[in-house]
UniProtKB/TrEMBL annotation, chain A:
Keywords: Signal. InterPro entries: RuvA_2-like (IPR010994). It comes from the Bacteria. Residues 1-20 form the signal peptide. It comes from Pedobacter ureilyticus. The lineage of its organism: Bacteria, Pseudomonadati, Bacteroidota, Sphingobacteriia, Sphingobacteriales. The keyword Signal applies. This is Helix-hairpin-helix domain-containing protein.
Automatic annotation (TrEMBL), chain B:
This is PorV/PorQ family protein. It comes from Pedobacter ureilyticus. It comes from the Bacteria.
């Protein structure tokens, strides 16, 4: 019986590997879609995709790796990782990848996801840093992207006041160099729609004397130099513990992958995304002090965007940092790089297979004075110029329990902590529990901890999730989260609370068919819409119902259909509804230079409150969550063509066609007419 | 008496909102009361067919404390006696303070037909007593069925008070809930039970509850649960030493806060 199963699994896995090689991007896309729910629009997750694409070419040797490296494969749960090490410790090195099946928590889906990125063979035999090797074995990846909204928006017309000063074109240049797991470098230049291309590009830091385009980013990293595990010059991210004390860049949170709330801290990483805010700029390193003990010192200097005002003493002040990275109008250009930030500190980490503990300390200072906003809800915001943060984090595996947590403290300000456990209850069921308490005055500029609100402050909560895989075909996820805001919030004039519940059932009897049913409900409180002397709070309830089928005809055509209904209800007002239905068709024959996909969607939402987001296919490295609001049709088409062995080209055209409107969009983005269309072209050259 | 006036408001609030179901003991409470298909002594207050899980007579005491009141609590007792494929059980719940209390006492009978199917019925007497106001009495019936599809998956269905009995006294507003509950369990191993129950009280919306019972060691069980309306979270542990069992549960309600309870059982 066991033997039969093994053979069956072998065939499944072989089939999968073959498919994965032909559709390298498909898997990465699926993966990111399943873990990254509700990303901001047009978010650049290229750093994540970069990692995965890199491992496709340079698989991780499971017999010679560490937890930090495996955590970069975001779909592995920490419990799987420690079970793997436990297995190797007990049974010796893995002899065959099929052995993974005998490790607790490794279900077929995880194994299928994992296989393309791992190996058991010693790889990277050539890794000496010499000029000849760097030239011969290095990988170069160059991407050029151009895009624009085709219709003319109001901001580009000859307005008397605020208007977009640049052109509506968007440009991106992204160059990446990697050599084995020893050297990495990148250069990114970007111009958003409405920004100047060259003019008025102010320098952004000591570390970049001048900017040639509106946004520039780059790094040079040398890895695995004896004691020096990592050295990064230029732009980098630091991700430690549960993201409470020091975490820059993107962090996954609550999602249908219920274990997503357990952060996969990957430490110091070079920064290779085009997002203009979430990174550090300067120098950082990770040094092995003694066996299992690492120290990561870092220093960063950046100029950030903020709207400044002058206080009574004539000093320039700000209340918040602007994170959009847009510099289109005169005002936005004036605010650009108006504030300097210096961050320095270090992280000490002790790690063995079962246990990991760490301590973080760093100092943030600004050349301008922070003043809290005038509203009552802002009264506990950061004030001053200097801030010191300290924190401690841990994770510990005991049998089938993985405990994790972090404590963070801002000196002379608040405290925050998060603790939880990930438990493998049986071979088919795992559970997550996470408790959090973030004080209202927990000041930290690098806090991405799991929270319901966009910032992990002024919140207490308890999250519990279950992941059930009763058989190969079925998979069920649940989570419930109760949260409390002890202090006021924007548009919430009293302490409030709420809860969220998600249930999802996936049925995938074959490799080419998958059906998903999802239900999500969320209740929060917000100021009433009525005009009253004192705002009272109304319950705001949002429910999502989703049904999705993915199927295929033959080897070349794939189909996906989704229907989603949103119900929104605030206070005593009647519930309003939003609907979305779409049809996706993809064409990707095994041996064709041309692949592509299209979507046709119909949406009808009563208002912005019942809007719906859905993941959209895009050119490689760009991630779009389409916003479906109003009533109309949405369509897009993507094509990819392999021009030559190392040269690919992508094209995208997307359009909104609204029903019964005279203008689309608002403010400076307003378009006359009922259409909004956008095009994008991308060229990638790998050499 | 005046001291307790605010308490009366809270009591009437909790009776109509949280007392829709009578206390199901610390184990089932810790599982979010997702009890329609779970077998327990306190199935007496849920699906009476669930008492067929016991192989020997069991007696149990349970005590729940409502933290917002000075002396508000619920005490309960249950006993189940198996004979052949038949099971008999009695239960008593008392909820309130000395000036106000509500008692539910009942007698249940259940029968199992083979390993898969069992059915159960229970008759209850309800009494509300308010010092200086008098008291009111009525009765109700609960009935349920359990069906095991296989070793791993089971289903349960039960109804409370299908004939919608009410207190006869005209000055008592409190009613006996009429509700139907449908649930399932999934036990992927001998150590783990996952349970879910959908409930429909005729006077309120659908409620959904899910619960987990995980036997961590032979001695120790960990439990947790969620229910949707209102959104409540539950946690609990069970200690199992030979014939003696101790269960602890904590229920967290968004308005009422934490309600701890403890249960002691002895299997003869």
């Amino acid at each position: 019986m066991r033997f039969k199963l093994l053979i069956l699994a072998t065939f499944l896995l072989i089939g999968f590997v073959a498919k994965a090689q032909t559709q390298e991007d498909q898997l990465i896309k699926d993966l990111i879609e399943s873990i990254a729910e509700n990303l901001p629009e047009d978010y650049d997750l290229s750093e994540l995709q970069d990692r995965l694409t890199y491992y496709r070419k340079h698989p991780i040797n499971l017999n010679n790796t560490n937890a930090e490296e495996l955590k970069t494969l975001v779909f592995l749960s920490p419990l799987q990782i420690s079970n793997l090490f436990e297995h190797i410790k007990k049974n010796g090195k893995l002899i065959d990848l099929l052995e993974l099946q005998s490790i607790p928590e490794f279900d077929l889906t995880s194994i299928q996801r994992l296989l393309p990125f791992v190996t058991l063979n010693q790889t990277g035999t050539v890794d000496k840093i010499t000029a000849a090797n760097l030239a011969k074995y290095g990988n170069n990846d160059l991407i050029l992207r151009y895009g624009r909204v085709i219709e003319k928006t109001k901001g580009y017309t000859d307005l008397p006041g605020s208007r977009y000063l640049g052109t509506p074109d968007r440009y991106l240049l992204r160059y990446r160099y990697t050599y084995s797991n020893r050297v990495s470098a990148s250069l990114i230049m970007e111009k958003d729609a409405g920004e100047y291309l060259f003019k008025n590009a102010k320098p952004a830091s000591y570390f970049f004397p001048s900017n040639y385009t509106d946004f520039m980013s780059g790094h040079l990293a040398i890895l695995n130099m004896g004691r020096f595990k990592k050295i990064v010059l230029g732009d980098y991210t630091m991700q430690f513990g549960q993201a409470l004390t020091l975490w820059s860049g993107f962090a996954f949170g609550k999602s249908p992958d219920v274990t997503g709330v357990v952060k996969r801290d990957v430490g110091l990483r070079p920064y290779t995304s085009a997002n203009e805010f979430a990174f550090l700029r300067g120098a950082a390193a990770t040094v092995e002090v003694v066996k299992n003990l690492e120290f990561s010192p870092f220093i960063s200097h950046r100029k950030l965007d903020a709207s400044l005002s002058t206080n009574a003493d004539g000093e320039l002040t700000l209340s918040t940092i602007n994170e959009t990275g847009l510099h289109r109008t005169q005002n936005e250009i004036n605010n650009k790089n108006s504030t300097e930030q210096i961050v320095y500190g270090g992280v000490l980490q002790y790690r063995t297979n079962g246990l990991s503990v760490g301590a973080v300390a760093y100092h943030t200072s600004f050349n301008r004075l922070f003043v809290p906003g005038a509203s009552l809800y802002q009264s506990f915001n950061f004030a001053g110029k200097e801030l010191t943060n300290v924190g401690a984090h841990y994770s510990y595996t005991y049998k089938n329990f993985y405990f994790f947590g972090e404590f963070g403290k801002a000196i002379d300000a608040g405290l925050a902590y998060v603790n939880g456990a990930l438990v493998s209850l049986s071979s088919t069921v795992s559970a997550v529990v996470l408790h959090r308490n973030y004080q209202k005055n927990y000041h930290n500029f690098f806090n991405q901890a799991t929270a319901e609100a966009s910032e992990a402050i002024n919140e207490k909560g308890l999250y519990a999730g279950l992941n059930i895989n009763p058989s190969k075909a079925w998979s069920i996820q649940f989570y419930g989260d109760y949260f409390k805001y002890p202090w006021l919030r924007f548009r919430v004039d009293a302490p409030s609370d709420g809860y969220e519940f998600l249930g999802q059932v996936t049925y995938s009897p074959t490799k080419t068919f998958r059906a998903i049913l999802r239900f999500k409900t969320e209740t929060k409180q917000q100021n009433t819409n009525l005009t009253v002397p004192f705002n009272y709070l109304d319950d705001v309830k949002r429910e999502n119902y989703r049904a999705e089928v993915k199927w295929a005809i033959g080897k070349s055509f794939g189909f996906q259909n989704r229907v989603e209904v949103v119900q929104f209800k605030k206070g005593a007002a009647n519930a309003e509804f939003g609907y979305l239905a779409y049809q996706d068709v993809s064409y990707s024959p095994l041996s064709s230079r041309l692949t592509g996909n299209i979507r046709v969607a119909y949406f009808n939402t009563a208002s912005y409150d019942s809007r719906i987001y859905a993941y959209e296919d895009d050119v490689l490295y760009n991630f779009t969550f389409g916003l479906y609001n109003g009533k109309g049709l949405r369509g897009y088409a993507n094509i990819k063509y392999k021009l030559a062995k190392r040269l690919d080209v992508w094209g995208r055209y997307a359009i909104y066609n609204y029903d019964n409107v005279e203008t689309v969009g608002s403010g400076l983005d307003e378009i006359q007419g009922k259409m909004k269309s956008e095009m994008r072209v991308q060229l990638r050259y790998q050499f | 008496m005046r001291r307790n006036l605010p308490l009366f408001f809270i009591l009437s609030f909790t009776i109509s909102h949280t007392f829709g179901q009578y206390n199901q003991g610390a184990r089932l409470t810790a599982m979010g009361n997702a009890s329609a298909a779970v077998k327990d002594v306190w199935s007496l207050n849920a699906n009476p067919a669930g008492i067929t899980g016991k192989k020997s007579p069991v007696a149990t005491l349970n005590y729940a404390r409502y933290l917002f009141g000075d002396e508000l609590s619920e005490q309960s007792f249950a006993f189940v006696l198996p004979f052949d494929n038949n099971f008999a059980g009695i239960s008593i719940n008392r909820y309130g303070i000395s000036e106000f209390n509500e008692i539910k006492a009942g007698f249940g009978l259940a029968k199992s037909f083979g390993d898969a199917l069992s059915i159960g019925m229970k008759g209850n007497i309800h009494q509300i007593k308010i010092t200086n106001y008098g008291n009111a009495t009525t009765f109700s019936v609960d009935a349920g069925v359990n069906y095991a599809l296989n070793k791993r998956i089971g289903f349960g269905l039960y109804v409370n008070n299908p004939s919608s009995q009410e207190y006869k006294a005209t000055n008592v507003e409190t009613h006996i809930p009429t509700a139907i509950h449908l649930g399932g369990t999934y036990a992927p191993s001998n150590k783990l039970i996952l349970a879910a129950t959908v409930s429909k009280d005729f006077d309120s919306k659908f409620d959904v509850a899910i619960g987990v019972d995980y036997k961590f060691y032979e001695l120790l069980s960990l439990r947790g649960g969620l229910s949707a309306k209102p959104f409540k979270q539950y946690f609990g542990i069970g200690l199992n030493y030979q014939k003696l069992m101790m269960d602890i549960a904590i229920e967290s309600h968004p308005q009422i806060g934490y309600t701890p309870q403890i249960g002691l059982s002895y299997a003869f």
